[in-house]
Design brief:
single chain, alpha/beta, 7-stranded parallel sheet, 6-stranded parallel sheet, 19 helices, 29% helix, 22% strand, binds adenosine-5'-diphosphate, binds zinc ion
Length: 739
């Protein structure tokens, strides 16, 4: 993430109206297509147009004038220009940059910027009715139905036919008749929900002196234009949100827009409430789960400058802001910022690119910086602001390791005596405990005691996970599910299938047994299915209606529960197996995040980590709260091995329904691999998930020196290997998943 954007942003408006334009279509195409410009149509770069392609009509974005290489008789004309402002130049630049960085076709990337085609048309106004002020006030011969309608409309606000039908209990015909009789007149209402304006002076918090120093520094960065990256490095509960909202407030005061990226928006109801407390209104929200009407409204409001602050998932980066003044990336270390489907881009990295194109500051907030960010701070490329202490009387919790080799739970149980006693004492005191295990369902494996058969997904090389609450076996990779069979599917033995290993449902089962009087709640993505469920969970937890919470990583992040004083990690070693490059880093981050849920208010917090390897430097670092020591050691290890961020990686994933075909293409790629100094090609090898959704997968990994131009090497390499249509080649520059 070091290269400059491929071309400098600028406003290269055409000098004369061009006769031909290059139009980028939202299809997996690397290049734009040329079209003729109809007479009297003005098409500047970024203009959104409708064009013919074969027998289809598509929308596209004008990139600029075209030369005359396409013969005139082959050239089709633009059908029309949508009546909306062109995409801002920064978005077009970001699309180009993302495409050249990820090697995704530019057309696939531009889809991210035009994901709501309905937004290109002006909204159709809603027709509503009011009393005709010119109609005589006392109409003698009114039917009771008409009288009810006039009475209803007495109070002023216009109503639609549906409103009137419901509220005055009349049919649509009555309204129509009254309109014809001149008793009513129509008014057009805007059909889009209004986006309220946040007020930067609504309710500024009283900041502590550390917070104020950090906030003042961020305000300074926002008030004078210029690109710069700041790491807001604050321990859990230090008030990072409070501080970065001051940067947002400053952008608003400067008349600019602000974008806040968060990893899991659906669950951030508390975040939205805090925003509202600070600015008087909720912000515009952008993520994959909001419905089409709302998406359309937000897209237009951003483009027209009516939305001043957007909080969203990574795709919000491609929204058409015209006056962006600051970007905040909350929980910058979170792996959810990396998209692994389609265009493999990293939301944090592309946010930095957008900030650089816009020439504005960007704030990365976290308690556990990624090694990439940490290294950029060390080398002075990023600035760092520190919040070293928790807000108010809260102190960071004490963290202790429980050695599972000595304090071993009995067979089929998962809680050690130490942890169990601590939970007991916590509940006795009327406080809350969280038992954390990052595994959904009841058991990760179902095994036949008779023949040893393990039940696998039919289309993936993965075990099926038992979900006892729903009574099913599920594949967590493709979504396949089936009933738990009565006999072993392999040997036919009856009553021989046993659950192996714990998921949170199984831990909860043990908790019910051990603490029959406690109020227990299990929380995972299976139970927190949407914003309403999340809000209810937060309410119950805050009101103290839950004594023991058993949850996955979904409860590890962001929440602030004052009564939660004990966090028990059931299996701290869980994320460490698998040999993933970032396994250690991620485990450290996750454990520190979940530990950070304990003791966030007056009562002190305690954290117990159950582990089989208490001597591991990672566990020691967590127990000693030695984050910087951990990061520095991790950095040394990566530097030594030439791994990111000190070297570069790119993964190629070849997949096909036919295993031999996948092998053949993978081998062909290996044979024509570039032989360059400082560049190693590893593989091909079957991917750890060698079968996924019925496709056989092979991986190659390119490992290069930090200064290597990985994109150029890949482009040259891949141009020499023909890929049959039945084989898919996924390219992942800077991969985060090694499955
Ligand atoms: P972090 O994001 O750093 O983990 P938060 O921003 O969630 O921390 O802050 C922790 C808690 O402390 C929140 O409930 C927040 O509202 C409160 N808090 C932090 N700073 C202040 C402040 N200056 N005034 C009032 N409350 C604050
Ligand atoms: Zn599957």
């Amino acid at each position: 993430m070091t290269d400059e954007p491929s071309s400098a942003p600028g406003t290269d408006l055409f000098e004369q109206a061009p006769e031909r334009v290059r139009v980028l279509l939202p299809l997996p195409l690397a290049e734009p297509y040329d079209y003729a410009v109809p007479p009297e149509t003005h098409l500047e770069p970024g203009a959104i147009v409708e064009v013919p392609l074969g027998r289809r009509r598509l929308h596209g974005v004008v990139l600029g004038p075209a030369d005359d290489t396409v013969p005139a008789d082959k050239l089709k004309a633009v059908i029309r220009r949508f009546p909306i402002d062109p995409l801002p130049n920064a978005v077009v630049e970001l699309v180009k940059w993302t495409a050249s960085w990820t090697l995704a076709p530019m057309g696939s990337v531009v889809r991210l910027a035009m994901s709501v085609p309905a937004a290109f048309e002006p909204p159709k106004p809603i027709r509503a009715f009011v009393r005709n002020p010119a109609a005589p006030d006392k109409e003698p011969r009114l039917t009771p139905a008409r009288r009810r309608v006039l009475d209803l409309l007495e109070d002023g606000p216009p109503r639609t036919t549906t409103d009137i039908a419901v509220e005055a209990a009349v049919g649509a015909g009555v309204v129509k008749g009254m309109l014809e009789a001149g008793l009513l007149v129509t008014v057009d209402l805007p059909s889009e929900p209004a986006i309220p304006k946040p007020d930067p002076d609504y309710e500024a918090p009283e900041l502590t002196s550390d917070q104020e120093a950090a906030a003042a520094s961020l305000r300074g960065a926002v008030s004078e234009p210029g690109f710069g990256v700041t790491l807001l490095d604050g321990v859990t509960g230090s008030g990072k949100t409070e501080v970065y909202l001051e940067a947002v407030a400053e952008a608003l005061k400067q008349g600019r827009q602000a974008l806040v990226l968060v990893p899991e928006i659906a669950l951030s109801t508390p975040w939205l409430e805090r925003f509202e407390a600070r600015f008087g209104v909720t912000p515009a929200v952008w993520h994959s789960e909001i419905g089409p009407p709302r998406r359309r409204a937000v897209w237009r409001a951003v483009s027209e400058g009516r939305a001043r602050v957007v909080v969203g998932a990574r795709s919000a980066l491609f929204l058409p802001f015209r006056e962006l003044g600051v970007i905040v990336v909350d929980e910058e270390h979170d792996a959810a910022y990396k998209q692994d489907d389609g265009v493999s881009y990293h939301g944090r990295d592309m946010a930095i690119v957008r900030a650089r194109i816009e020439d504005i500051p960007i704030v990365l907030a976290t308690a556990t910086p990624s090694l990439e960010t940490w290294t950029n701070v060390e080398t002075g490329r990023f600035r760092r602001l520190e919040l070293p202490a928790r807000y108010g009387p809260a102190r960071l919790p004490d963290i202790d390791l429980v050695d599972l080799r000595r304090d071993r739970p009995e067979r089929g149980r998962w809680l050690s005596n130490t942890l169990s006693r601590a939970v007991h004492a916590t509940v006795e005191r009327g406080e809350q405990a969280l038992l954390f295990l990052n595994r959904r369902g009841y058991a990760p494996l179902t095994l036949c005691r008779a023949c040893g058969h393990r039940i696998e997904c039919p289309s993936c090389s993965a075990w099926l996970v038992e979900h006892r609450l729903s009574g099913r076996l599920q594949c967590h990779h493709c979504g396949f599910s089936s009933r738990l069979p009565e006999k072993c599917p392999s040997c036919g033995a009856e009553d021989s299938l046993v659950a192996s290993g714990p998921g949170i449902e199984r831990v909860a089962e043990e908790v019910y047994e051990r603490f029959p009087d406690a109020r227990v709640q299990t929380v995972s993505s299976d139970t927190l299915t949407g914003p309403a469920a999340a809000a209810e969970f937060v309410r119950a937890m805050t009101a103290g209606e839950i004594d023991i919470l058993v949850g996955t990583q979904i409860v590890a992040k962001g929440y602030h529960f004052p009564g939660l004083t004990l966090v028990g990690v059931v299996d701290a070693d869980l994320g460490l197996s698998g040999g993933d490059l970032r396994a250690g880093e991620r485990t450290f981050q996750l454990l520190q995040q979940v530990a950070g849920r304990a003791g966030r208010s007056r009562k002190p917090g305690r954290v117990l980590l159950q582990t089989h390897q208490p001597d591991d430097p990672l566990m020691q670092a967590i127990a000693a709260s030695d984050r910087d020591g951990f990061l520095n050691r991790e950095a040394d290890g990566r530097r030594l091995q030439g791994m990111p961020p000190f070297g570069r990686l790119a993964a190629l994933i070849v997949s096909a329904k036919d295993a031999d075909q996948a092998d053949a293409v993978a081998r062909a790629l290996a044979r024509s691999a570039p032989r360059l100094e400082g560049v190693d090609i590893l593989g091909p090898a079957p991917a750890p998930l060698s079968l996924l959704r019925g496709r056989h997968r092979r991986r190659l990994l390119l490992k290069a020196d930090r200064r290597a131009n990985v994109q150029a090497i890949l482009r040259e390499w891949l141009s020499r290997v023909p890929i049959p249509g039945t084989v898919r080649l996924g390219i992942d520059v800077d991969p985060y998943s090694f499955m």
